[in-house]
């Protein structure tokens, strides 16, 4: 058997040489790691970020979810009902509306997850023993957020409200609560997950595509030729982004098509609006990826920056956990992520049939994020030219 490459323990000089070379390589790697500050930051920041997000921001049993109320009569009993609902810790009444149209618009736009309607003559009907109905409408596009809150409604009549009308528990409940789970009445998780996967997959692929664009030119040695050409930074950026917009649009078409054909996800709204806003989302992610490519010194750093951005996008966007159930500071961070706004858009168009008027906030947010990323990218690339 060949002994080539084996360490001879009986020869002290070879043994010493082995450890000396190993130590030299070890020192060299530490020096390289110290120079590669981005990689070192990833080693420290990724576990810290995971711990902070999972420990503080993520909540699988969301509480204090925003709700609107339509009071067609202002009575003591109606106020007691609303207070009892807030005491369950699932509902937080943020809006009081004056019409059914405004009530529906808030649910369509995603500004509230629940709507409570107390009809006119409600208290009088209760005192006559007519058992009137109280309507609770829920946005069930996220079944996790809606199901726990709706299941708590049964406690309201039997506990806090019973003492407003009776001493002790009544023989029959004084009124009926009718809960309507809108947009996803069967609470099917695939109707929530599949549209979310459209945005998640596009975020990952679009970031990686363009994050490598400038660093690839540097590592291949073609950046000098690019810089010698009479071309402006904006033209370079658009030339690199536009082809991937087409690739991303093809990806989105395939994913949505599979979702409709295989998983039965409906498209209740405008297909044209979905295509336009998907293109806007793709362009936003490509702009952010291009910005990363101007910040990184090599392809490894560009990939690391992309993963650093992708992790909070998954956790804070509302894809895995209910967005409105997170703490306020986590929601503020989530609003800075394109995926947060696109998830609202794609779910609202596909499941609710929402229009551009209902989605103004998220559309403007995507445009703002895209322009900001493009501005930073052009500024960074201009510094490279100088």
From TrEMBL:
Spans through the membrane: 38-58, 193-214, 241-265, 271-293, 305-324, 363-381
Pfam families assigned to the protein according to its UniProt record, in alphabetical order:
ABC2_membrane_3
Topology class, membrane:
Multi-pass membrane protein
Alphabetically ordered keywords of this record? Cell membrane, Membrane, Transmembrane, Transmembrane helix, Transport
User: What is the predominant subcellular site recorded for this chain?
Assistant: membrane
Q: Which PROSITE patterns match?
A: ABC_TM2
Compartment(s): Cell membrane
Q: Which domain of life is it from?
A: Bacteria
Boundaries of every ABC transmembrane type-2 domain copy: 155-384
Give the UniProt family note.
Answer: Belongs to the ABC-2 integral membrane protein family.
What name is this protein filed under? ABC transporter permease
């Amino acid at each position: 058997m060949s002994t080539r490459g084996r360490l001879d323990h009986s020869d002290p000089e070879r043994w010493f040489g082995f450890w000396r070379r190993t130590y030299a390589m070890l020192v060299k790697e530490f020096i390289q790691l110290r120079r590669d500050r981005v990689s070192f930051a990833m080693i420290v920041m990724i576990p810290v970020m995971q711990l902070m997000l999972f420990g503080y921001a993520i909540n699988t049993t969301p509480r204090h979810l925003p709700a609107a109320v339509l009071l067609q009569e202002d009575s003591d009993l109606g106020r007691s009902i609303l207070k009892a609902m807030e005491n369950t810790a699932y509902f937080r009444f943020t809006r009081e509306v004056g019409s059914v149209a405004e009530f529906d618009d808030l649910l369509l736009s995603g500004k509230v997850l629940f709507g409570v309607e107390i009809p006119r003559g409600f208290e009088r009907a209760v005192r006559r023993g007519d058992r009137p109905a109280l309507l609770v409408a829920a946005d069930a596009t996220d079944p996790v957020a809606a199901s726990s809150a709706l299941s708590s409604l049964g406690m309201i009549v039997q506990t806090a409200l019973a003492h407003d009308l009776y001493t002790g528990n009544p023989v029959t409940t004084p009124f009926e609560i009718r809960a309507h789970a809108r947009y996803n009445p069967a609470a099917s998780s695939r109707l929530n997950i599949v549209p979310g996967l459209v945005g998640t997959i596009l975020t990952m692929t679009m970031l990686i595509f363009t994050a490598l664009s400038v660093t690839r030119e540097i590592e291949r040695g073609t950046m000098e030729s690019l810089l010698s050409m009479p071309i402006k930074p904006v033209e370079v950026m658009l030339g690199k982004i536009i082809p991937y917009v087409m690739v991303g649009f093809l990806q989105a078409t395939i994913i949505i098509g599979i979702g409709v054909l295989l998983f039965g996800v409906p498209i209740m709204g405008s297909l044209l609006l979905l295509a336009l806003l998907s293109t806007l989302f793709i362009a936003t992610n490509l702009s952010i990826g291009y910005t990363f490519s101007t910040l990184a010194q090599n392809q490894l750093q560009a990939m690391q920056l992309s993963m650093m951005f992708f992790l909070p996008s998954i956790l804070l966007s509302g894809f895995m956990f209910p967005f409105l159930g997170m703490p306020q500071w986590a929601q503020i961070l989530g609003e800075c992520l394109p995926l947060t706004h696109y998830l609202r858009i794609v779910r609202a168009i596909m499941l609710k049939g929402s229009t551009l008027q209902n989605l103004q906030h998220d559309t403007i947010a995507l445009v703002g994020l895209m322009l900001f990323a493009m501005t930073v990218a052009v500024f960074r690339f201009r510094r490279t030219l100088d």
